[in-house]
Design a protein that fits this description.
The chain is an all-alpha fold. The chain is built from 5 helices and no strands. It has one domain.
């Protein structure tokens, strides 16, 4: 379950981050206009880096604490930014959809961790 959850997160990050890199116009049409396109691209590239790192760890079959922490903390960071800035009126409500996906990924990773720990203790 843990490998599946982090693999799903990696795929979600890669797909969502490639979108503004490949079509800023359609990205802005859905998420709203952006002031600093360079910053959108930078964040997208950083999300690609996280996604590739997670995917590489899953493919290698190695999920050390640092990778799991990166996965969980990335979810928390997106949940916080999405909710704080939606409710303060800075970004579009569409970002609440991302917050929900991030929350589901977080829960799946935690469940995977619990399952992994239970398996190793048995």
């Amino acid at each position: 379950m843990l490998r599946w959850a982090i693999g799903a997160q990696a795929g979600y990050y890669l797909l969502s981050a490639l979108w503004p890199l490949l079509s800023m116009n359609s990205f802005e049409a859905v998420t709203g206009p952006k002031t600093d396109l360079w910053l959108v691209r930078l964040v997208a590239l950083l999300i690609v880096v996280i996604g590739l790192t997670l995917a590489g760890a899953v493919k290698a079959g190695r999920l050390p604490l640092e990778i799991v922490a990166c996965a969980l903390l990335s979810c928390i960071a997106f949940i916080c930014v999405d909710t704080i800035y939606v409710f303060s009126g800075v970004i579009s409500k569409i970002y609440l959809g991302d917050a929900v996906v991030e929350l589901l990924l977080f829960v799946a990773i935690v469940i995977g961790l619990i399952g992994t720990k239970a398996t190793h203790q048995a």
